[in-house]
Design brief:
Blueprint: E1 15-17, H1 20-53, H2 56-81, H3 111-122, E2 124-126, E3 133-138
Helix pairs in contact: 1-2, 1-3
């Protein structure tokens, strides 16, 4: 009885991307999204400091941070638009309001940030649309 494993289901494997280009788009989109979301509170902090103390040198830093935050937001949208789930073809880092799977994980209430942090730290993530596990590597 102990050696009979015929009734066991095969282990689930994570889905892989079709090409290396998709993995690069996902990784870059995730990196730019995390940097963008980290730059927002820094920019707000510098803005509040400038409003309170009216220092000229901090005004220049605020303008630089506003420009950098805008560029990071634009780059996260550009690269995030090309990140697609290998199984359901859903956009992984897109702002759309499509339905989410009940197994989807969030980070600070954001599905996009949840996918981005798991891509950057663990190289595997769960698609927020279909709920299937995916691995950040190509089949080829």
């Amino acid at each position: 009885m102990h050696g009979d494993f015929s009734n066991r289901r095969p282990a689930r494997t994570a889905h892989q991307f079709r090409s290396g280009r998709s993995v690069v788009k996902l990784w870059l989109g995730s990196a730019f999204l995390v940097l963008f979301l980290a730059a927002i509170p820094i920019t707000l902090g510098i803005g509040i400091y400038v409003l309170l103390f009216s220092e000229q040198e901090w005004m220049v830093r605020l303008l630089i941070m506003l420009g950098a935050t805008t560029v990071l937001g634009f780059l996260s949208l550009v690269f995030g638009h090309g990140a697609i789930c290998p199984l359901c073809r859903g956009r992984l880092l897109h702002l759309g309001r499509s339905s989410r799977n009940s197994k989807a994980k969030t980070s600070f209430g954001s599905y996009r940030l949840g996918v981005a942090t798991r891509v950057l730290t663990g190289r595997t993530f769960r698609c927020p649309h279909c709920g299937e596990p995916c691995r950040c590597e190509s089949r080829i």
